[in-house]
Amino acid sequence: MRHGRGFKTTFVDHLRKRRQLANMSELHEYTAAEVLRHASTDDCWLILGDDGRQKIYDITAFLESHPGGPEILMDLAGQDAHEEFKEVGHSKAAQDMVEQLCIGRLRVDGRRKAKRGRVVLPVAVDDEKRPRHDRLVALMILLMALCFGYLLVPNTAL
């Protein structure tokens, strides 16, 4: 069954629940890594907002109702989609509707963002498990230098 503006009844109900939850408590804080884990059609979150004021939006219930189709949103799932959202020039009604999907704020935790909203997570490297090729590389360079020296120096002993 469809509701007034073409949204499915379940989506409208979802918005009502979100509004009730927002009135009951403060916004929860999530890290970029937590948001990145919600990038499927069954569980889809986005980050919107300028640096320092970024909010998290659960758009799962809205995917099928999005006028541009779910594919556009899924390309940005789990990421910062603020620039893309601004570029499209959404109407005031669309901006108000998105606010109703807000579930929290982005916690600033020192992680870097790559271009196009991709989140770059730090990678821990265990030095014990890292292969030790330093000596092998040095030996190969030495052998190559000797070979080139042999080939380039004229042989006058003949």
TrEMBL record:
Q: What Gene Ontology molecular-function terms does this entry list?
A: heme binding; metal ion binding
Membrane-crossing residue ranges in chain numbering: 136-153
Give the UniProt subcellular location, in the record's own words: Membrane
- Key words, A-Z: Heme, Iron, Membrane, Metal-binding, Transmembrane, Transmembrane helix
PROSITE patterns with a match to the protein in the record: CYTOCHROME_B5_1 (PS00191), CYTOCHROME_B5_2 (PS50255)
User: Where does the record place the Cytochrome b5 heme-binding domain?
Assistant: 27-107
Q: Which GO terms describe its cellular component?
A: membrane
Family according to the record: Belongs to the cytochrome b5 family.
Q: Mind telling me what this protein is named? A: Cytochrome b5 heme-binding domain-containing protein
